[in-house]
Design a protein that fits this description.
Chain lengths: ~220, ~200
């Protein structure tokens, strides 16, 4: 499934119909995945029951257990799916023409827009990941790992980049996630795209310093 | 006989230690009262439940860290020296008390939305120490949220190190933490200099 939340998933018509069973199962699975993100984001992983999931998705308990072994299986599948869509969109925006600062700006724009469009996924990933359990935490870290080249390429771009600490990309990522988490905690997910200047500065500054970073931000966000 | 206030404090200290050792979720009121050596009745005289007790314990942990930082950063020193002293204080304190570190930085994330809000408020309080750093900019205009990015970079590094269970090794991370905190203000060249100076003691 390509979509990662927002909007109502397609439901098969009620009553008798002739849809192939695998199409019905697919739709039920999608509804459960979206319900999992929605409910865990709203009340925290611990508070969500299988009954909540089946109720929210309009799917029977039997179907649930056919599709997923348990609550954790369902939640992790949902989280994997949503975060994978997000990461692939950011990477797609980042790849392509241009020098590193320009491509980083494109990738970060995509990231902020995606998070603004999916505030529940955003909160779940950047704010509430600690309450979603260690398996989800590992997945979040793996996703961040996939985004590391967006930052780490600064090492090749910057004069003297080779001499920077091994942790430099983790610092940049920490700065960026700190800014985003602050906005999310204040309940302003929809305002995230407005953070581009600051987030871009935080990405560039460990590699090229405040003067060059400010110039690039000015040039790229005008 | 211990006063009410002392008992309350014992319970909070016990909560910090137990949660740091076994995690927030796995901690029960029974674990905390056993560690604090108080009765269940005493616990419930002071706190509604585990969650309320944890929030108070978290506040206490933050106060302890802030008090240490303030005590070591006072005096007529430059911003740079104060930043170095502040970071050194934190890593040394955390290395000495890994349970405090885990509770304050890692486990707080598992303790619900209000705990995470407190955690973020605490980070914001620490960023106030960085306000004077803008003087280093020498007229350049710095981003409004520069202290927040510096704090995010530092807390991210500490979080990662604690997650892999290496609180004792945090002091080795000091040069990197210093670099992370300084680089938005003074750039990678000057921050690398400071990092080398910290590495050689």
């Amino acid at each position: 499934m390509e979509r990662a939340g927002g909007g109502e998933p397609w439901r098969p018509p009620r009553g008798r119909h002739r849809l192939p069973p695998e199409v019905v199962a697919r739709s039920q699975r999608d509804r459960l995945l979206e319900a999992a993100i929605r409910l865990v984001a709203a009340t925290g992983y611990g508070a969500v029951t299988v009954g909540d999931l089946t109720g929210e998705a309009g799917v029977s308990r039997t179907t649930f257990y056919e599709l997923f072994g348990d609550k954790e299986g369902c939640f992790l599948a949902a989280y994997d799916n949503a975060i994978d869509v997000l990461v692939r969109r950011v990477i797609a925006a980042y790849e392509g023409e241009g020098e590193w600062p320009e491509r980083a700006a494109r990738g970060l724009t995509a990231l902020l827009e995606q998070l603004a469009a999916e505030p529940q996924l955003a909160r779940l990933s950047l704010v509430d990941i600690g309450s979603a359990g260690p398996a989800a935490q590992r997945r979040y870290r793996a996703a961040v790992q996939r985004l590391t080249p967006l930052f780490e390429e600064g090492r090749d771009f910057a004069p003297g980049g080779r001499g920077l600490p091994a942790n430099t990309s983790r610092m940049a990522i920490g700065g960026v996630t700190g800014l985003i988490a602050d906005e999310l905690l204040a309940g302003r997910a929809e305002a995230l795209p407005g953070l581009l200047s600051d987030v871009l500065f935080a990405t560039l500054v460990p590699y090229i310093g405040p003067d060059a970073a400010a110039r690039e931000v000015e040039r790229l966000t005008r | 006989m211990a006063s009410n206030e002392t008992r309350r404090r014992d319970i909070l200290e016990a909560m910090i230690r137990v949660v740091g050792r076994q995690g927030y979720k796995a901690t029960s009121v029974a674990d905390v009262i056993a560690e604090a050596d108080v009765s269940r009745t005493t616990f419930y005289k002071h706190f509604e439940d585990k969650h309320e007790c944890f929030l108070a314990a978290y506040d206490l942990a933050v106060e302890r860290i802030l008090d240490e930082v303030i005590a070591n950063c006072d005096g007529e020193r430059t911003w740079l020296e104060r930043v170095r002293a502040g970071l050194t204080t934190i890593v040394d304190l955390f290395a000495l008390h890994p349970e405090l570190a885990r509770t304050a930085i890692v486990e707080v994330a598992a303790a619900g939305a209000d705990a995470r809000q407190r955690h973020w408020d605490a980070i914001t309080r620490f960023t106030e120490f960085l306000a004077d750093g803008e003087d280093l900019a020498e007229g350049r205009e710095l981003p409004e949220h520069i202290a927040l990015m510096a704090a995010g970079a530092v807390s991210g590094l500490i979080f990662e190190e604690l997650l892999t269970g290496r609180a004792e090794r945090l002091p080795e991370l000091l040069p990197d933490l210093l670099f992370a905190l300084l680089v938005p203000y003074i750039g990678p060249g000057a921050a690398t200099e400071e990092m080398r100076r910290a590495a050689t003691g």
